[in-house]
Write a sequence for this structure.
């Protein structure tokens, strides 16, 4: 054996090129990474890798990496300003940061922590630092659309963090505004195989999307839809199912939803005078009872009844009556989908659900509903985005296709190993507390919070049903007093993770620029000088995922893991090579800052709670911990003293089989899910009082228990002739986040696949005299950019497709600089373009295209 072979090793760790965190084996020779391969022992990716993961080690050797702390010397900040970076020592960097924190320590709300970094533990450590400091402005979300609706909705209507089609048993799958299992979303490498297997065994795949992209290319049928009209489609399909075909799971609706809850003329539940509980009508003995009366045998979901002297109708009856206003002939003019097509898809979906049938798995009989409708970012990202999405969620609910074989499954909702976590009921018997493996509360859209006058700069108090609100910051920072905020409420200091918020967290970049310019001090971790880091005062070098430890190595293991009977698993991230001499682990930096500020005890208390670290494995005040020791404690706290860091170094992945109850929790969750959002009425009335006192002009049109279709502003702009097209965003399977195409291998793929070009329908291009490859102006109400056109038939004729996360302008990113279009920059950012329930920013925008 040669000396070179003796210095060769294969290290098991976790990929960090996206939020999933696939398990990988990294080949290292003489201290240099030579290649990365998938780990076949992990259920996450089963040995498979995507292009991003394969190209990951190129980032490790980026010649433009930040390897030492940097200090801005030019006090003037702007997109066109040179920061004048100067290399400094870690001591000077930490001294400067601590001094800025100490300056605002008497008013900690002046600190904003942008902690979102789901590639590892850094998000939790930065969050803990901000909370220990006392800041009320700690956000762990980044996208202005992704997760805005799906997470809070999923917690109250499924019990998990995200949703996922059960590809093991589904026979009919409709993807609306998502490319799940083909080009995007959780556990992509895992689900691509499952999607291929499902299609091979005969599952019909229908893709409804303005862009005929990767998902459409694999579908049995692609149906183009006008952007932002998903709610109209959902309402119309519900009408066909409930009123024309009478296809719905009556037993499921009566027993597992609030469909039988009696609703009065005021839209509120009719409640028992003594207990305040919602009432139902039991058709078995023609008696009105509380919803949880054990004697209820046949709760009615249709009809009209007298309940304690008040007239009441079941919530399901109101839903059925409401959707009758949306027959396919009415919605066709909005969606551009022919009425006959809507009826056919609704009928096929309803029949495929096989209502009433069961299946036996491992000796357990379960409801069998092998039809599923999945939606995600494309449906959420609109004005009125909550109800745009909720109508589609209702399609799964009314046929009982939730958390059962073949249906829509809730990710990360329940488990028994390494400890028990499970969704729980609450107010009015409804599903209130989603299950989470980590004891950290995630806001649900039920029952929401009572609105109050704002003290947060993102005015989260005015969005009582939303889960995160950072999208409002560029709006409120322009005129804080208009929202009742004083100088004491404004933000002065920002600490951020390596995420590129400038490009990925907001819309109109001019407003974002002014937001960052308004801050007195910014410190950020960075691998490279991206557009966000360009505004920093102090830059702290951040280790690559191949150089650091993380106990949580991506969200794929716990929040968006593969569902169904795939094994539970856990893995940790460990360094495969040492970081450069000037690079420190972020956890070490956080501990030093906390120690200097005198908040270490609070920091450790929060981290111990977050990671369930108790007894000998808890972090103790008065000590600083090497990160390897922390990960060892975390692993032992979860998996026992025999499975610490050394065990993971040797074995890589913990696996644990899920039983049927864990895999298909629907029949085992002791709570109801909603079809009628009664609490929206109360929250809306409370909010009216608050905004009335603030004298704010506020849109309350979405505060209703059953949503309507309300078109986006772009729809009206095109209809009026002011603009002629609507720009939408779509994803590629080989690019994630606003840093991907700085990697030269990924940049090459983008070049070869024309990813940097915008999609224009062939008929539109011909009418405008535009040819394939032409350079055009793409102009929205807030931005005009140069773009290169790809002419295609695979896009709705009223849409323009802008893919990826491109349009970089930072000098620190020379490979990707000036390539493609930064889609978010096209987006108007004001209250007229915010979903007033979820705070999602409208991601369909009216544009003009011309040479």
């Amino acid at each position: 054996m040669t000396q070179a072979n003796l210095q060769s090793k294969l290290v098991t760790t976790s990929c960090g090129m996206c939020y999933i965190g696939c398990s990988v084996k990294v080949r290292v020779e003489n201290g240099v990474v030579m290649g990365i391969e998938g780990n076949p022992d992990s259920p996450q990716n089963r040995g498979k890798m995507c292009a991003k993961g394969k190209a990951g080690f190129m980032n490790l050797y980026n010649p433009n990496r930040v390897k030492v702390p940097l200090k801005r010397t030019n006090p003037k900040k702007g997109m066109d300003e040179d920061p004048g970076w100067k290399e400094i020592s870690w001591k000077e960097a930490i001294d400067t940061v601590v001094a800025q924190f100490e300056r605002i320590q008497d008013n900690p709300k002046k600190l904003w922590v942008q902690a979102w970094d789901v590639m590892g533990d850094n998000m939790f450590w930065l969050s803990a630092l901000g909370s220990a400091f006392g800041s009320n402005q700690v956000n762990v979300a980044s996208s202005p659309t992704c997760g805005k609706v799906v997470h809070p909705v999923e917690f109250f209507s499924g019990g998990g963090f995200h949703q996922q089609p059960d590809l093991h048993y589904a026979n009919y799958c409709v993807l609306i505004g998502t490319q799940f299992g083909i080009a995007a979303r959780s556990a992509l490498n895992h689900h691509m195989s499952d999607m291929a297997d499902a299609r091979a065994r005969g599952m019909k795949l229908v893709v409804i999307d303005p862009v005929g992209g990767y998902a459409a290319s694999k579908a049995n049928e692609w149906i183009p839809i006008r952007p932002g009209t998903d709610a109209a489609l959902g309402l119309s399909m519900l009408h066909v199912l409930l009123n024309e075909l009478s296809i719905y799971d009556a037993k499921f609706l009566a027993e597992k939803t609030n469909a039988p809850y009696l609703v009065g003329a005021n839209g509120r539940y009719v409640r028992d005078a003594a207990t305040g509980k919602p009432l139902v009508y039991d058709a078995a003995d023609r008696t009105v009872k509380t919803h949880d009366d054990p004697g209820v045998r046949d709760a009615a979901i249709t009809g009209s009844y007298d309940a304690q002297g008040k007239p009441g109708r079941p919530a399901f009856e109101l839903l059925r009556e409401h959707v009758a206003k949306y027959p396919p002939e009415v919605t066709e003019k909005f969606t551009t989908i022919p009425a006959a097509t809507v009826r056919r898809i609704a009928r096929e979906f309803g029949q495929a659900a096989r209502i009433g049938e069961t299946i036996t798995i491992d000796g357990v009989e379960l409801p069998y509903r092998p039809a599923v409708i999945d939606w995600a970012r494309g449906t959420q990202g609109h004005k009125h985005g909550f109800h745009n999405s909720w109508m589609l969620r209702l399609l799964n609910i009314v046929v009982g296709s939730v958390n059962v074989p073949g249906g829509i499954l809730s990710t990360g909702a329940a488990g028994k190993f390494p400890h028990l976590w499970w969704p729980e009921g609450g107010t009015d018997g409804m599903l209130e507390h989603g299950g989470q493996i980590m004891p950290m509360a995630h806001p649900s859209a039920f029952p929401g919070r009572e609105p109050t006058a704002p003290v947060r700069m993102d005015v989260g108090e005015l969005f009582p049903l939303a889960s995160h609100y950072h999208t409002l910051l560029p709006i409120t920072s322009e005129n804080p007093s208009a929202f009742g905020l004083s100088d004491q409420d404004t933000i002065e200091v920002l600490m951020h993770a390596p995420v590129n918020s400038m490009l990925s967290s907001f819309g109109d970049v001019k407003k974002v620029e002014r937001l960052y310019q308004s801050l007195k001090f910014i410190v950020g971790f960075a691998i490279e000088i991206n557009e966000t880091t360009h505004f920093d005062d102090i830059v702290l070098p951040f280790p690559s995922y191949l150089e650091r430890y993380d106990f949580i190595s991506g969200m794929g293991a716990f929040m968006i893991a593969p569902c169904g009977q795939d094994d539970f698993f856990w893995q940790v991230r460990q360094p495969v090579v040492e970081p450069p001499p000037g690079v420190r682990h972020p956890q070490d930096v956080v501990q030093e800052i906390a120690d200097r500020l005198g908040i270490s005890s609070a920091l450790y208390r929060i981290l111990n709670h977050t990671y369930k670290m108790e007894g000998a494995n808890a972090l103790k005040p008065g000590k600083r911990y090497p990160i390897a020791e922390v990960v060892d404690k975390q692993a032992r706290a979860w998996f026992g003293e025999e499975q610490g860091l050394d065990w993971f170094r040797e074995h890589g992945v913990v696996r644990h089989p899920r039983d049927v109850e864990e895999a298909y929790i629907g029949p085992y969750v002791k709570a109801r899910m909603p079809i009628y959002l009664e609490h929206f009425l109360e929250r809306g009335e409370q909010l009216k009082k608050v905004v009335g006192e603030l004298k704010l002009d506020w849109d309350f049109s979405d505060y209703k228990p059953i949503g309507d279709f309300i078109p986006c502003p772009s729809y009206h702009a095109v209809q009026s002739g002011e603009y002629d097209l609507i720009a939408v965003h779509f994803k590629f399977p080989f690019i994630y986040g606003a840093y991907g195409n700085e990697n030269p291998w990924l940049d090459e793929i983008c070049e070869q696949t024309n990813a940097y070009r915008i999609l224009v329908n062939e008929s539109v291009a011909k009418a405008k005299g535009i040819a394939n490859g032409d350079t055009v102006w793409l102009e929205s109400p807030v931005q005009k950019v140069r773009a290169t056109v790809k002419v295609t038939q695979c896009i709705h004729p009223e849409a323009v497709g802008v893919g990826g996360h491109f349009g970089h302008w930072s000098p620190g990113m020379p490979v990707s600089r000036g390539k493609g279009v930064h889609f978010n920059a096209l987006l108007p950012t004001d209250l007229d373009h915010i979903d007033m329930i979820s705070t999602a920013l409208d991601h369909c925008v009216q544009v003009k295209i011309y040479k």
About this structure: The longest strand covers residues 784-792. The chain has 27 helices and 33 strands.
